[in-house]
Amino acid sequence: MDFNLSEEQLMLKDGVERFIQQEYGFEKRREIAASEEGFSRARWQDYAELGWLGLMLPEDVGGLACSFVETAIVMEAFGRGMVLEPLVQTALLCSAIIDRSGSDAKRQTLLPAVIEGRLLFSLADSEAGSRFKLGCSERTVAHRTTGGYLLNGAKTLVMAGGSADQLLVTARLDDHAENPAIFILERRAAGVTCRTYRLLDGSRAADIEFRDVELEASSLLVAPDRAREVLEAATGLATLASVAEILGVMEAVMEITAEYIKARVQFGQPIGKFQALQHRMAEMFVAVQETRSILYCGIAHLDRPARERSATISAAKAVAGRASRFVCAQGIQLHGGMGITEEYQVGHYFRKMTMMEKMFGDIDFHLARFAATH
């Protein structure tokens, strides 16, 4: 794998970092987080116009057919800006499921709308007590009817679920107890109720209940025989994207902390001259570089067999989780009491890190999954 970015990738990196710096400042982000949806529709349209919503999607649906490296570049910058828009949820996770669904009609209808920013998706998979399990269908069941299906059940922690136009829902079919199916439906359909709430980092999620929701036969997106495979492949991409986002958070905390200890004067000199603090900064730097290295390793294994790919992605998420805990905690410690104030950035990065560490499986989950493959 060539670790040097191409000229086009460097241009993308420069463009997205400049956009985040100019259009997603800390105070602006606080305003967006306080809004009803918890993200900006205007920024979402900007991402569509810049082509970021279709980076990895194929050209036949209007995408750019880029490699995962381009997605990692964007997500790293998004981590630096603590971006709130659900790009991973809609443009990566749900789009990958639709792209792999096997339905060319749905691909040609839905994916161009996602790329253009006209359609926002959320995956409704988690159920109460599921603990990062994929393909949850114990509490959500779709019964066959004469003209389609009747959906009943409940899903929890649906990211941006209250703002989604359509939902991808995992549910158990009558005659398939082992594997779930994936259905697509309107969030505002009759029988769908949604309770939204704010998360630790300012983003929004929802608990969604389905009561006798009538679905047409065409609502079945992925049949049970392929659903788990499709979910695992799409979630793997989303998990690796979250590692890139965590990397951006860590880099931002390290830079802010380095500037602070250079400017903070104690005992007649900047505290950055104290050797103990220099050692802490060096350890933070090593943790950031470890995360970058494991991210590159994960990217290099994306075209490997599923078992090997899954193990490497789990290793990347576990390493990133531990490293980010250390870096963000040290950022708080080196700032002292100011680090946890609402008005200062470092505390918000710590909250973002805490959320990202739990997304798509926490450290213990991924260590266990990695161990199970060896």
UniProtKB/TrEMBL annotation:
<dbReference type="InterPro" id="IPR013786">
    <property type="entry name" value="AcylCoA_DH/ox_N"/>
</dbReference>
<keyword id="KW-0560">Oxidoreductase</keyword>
<keyword id="KW-0285">Flavoprotein</keyword>
<dbReference type="Pfam" id="PF02771">
    <property type="entry name" value="Acyl-CoA_dh_N"/>
</dbReference>
<dbReference type="GO" id="GO:0003995">
    <property type="term" value="F:acyl-CoA dehydrogenase activity"/>
</dbReference>
<protein>
    <submittedName>
        <fullName>Acyl-CoA dehydrogenase</fullName>
    </submittedName>
</protein>
<dbReference type="InterPro" id="IPR036250">
    <property type="entry name" value="AcylCo_DH-like_C"/>
</dbReference>
<feature type="domain" description="Acyl-CoA dehydrogenase/oxidase N-terminal">
    <location>
        <begin position="6"/>
        <end position="117"/>
    </location>
</feature>
<comment type="similarity">
    <text>Belongs to the acyl-CoA dehydrogenase family.</text>
</comment>
<dbReference type="InterPro" id="IPR037069">
    <property type="entry name" value="AcylCoA_DH/ox_N_sf"/>
</dbReference>
<dbReference type="Pfam" id="PF00441">
    <property type="entry name" value="Acyl-CoA_dh_1"/>
</dbReference>
<dbReference type="InterPro" id="IPR009100">
    <property type="entry name" value="AcylCoA_DH/oxidase_NM_dom_sf"/>
</dbReference>
<feature type="domain" description="Acyl-CoA dehydrogenase/oxidase C-terminal">
    <location>
        <begin position="240"/>
        <end position="370"/>
    </location>
</feature>
<dbReference type="InterPro" id="IPR046373">
    <property type="entry name" value="Acyl-CoA_Oxase/DH_mid-dom_sf"/>
</dbReference>
<keyword id="KW-0274">FAD</keyword>
<dbReference type="InterPro" id="IPR009075">
    <property type="entry name" value="AcylCo_DH/oxidase_C"/>
</dbReference>
<dbReference type="GO" id="GO:0050660">
    <property type="term" value="F:flavin adenine dinucleotide binding"/>
</dbReference>
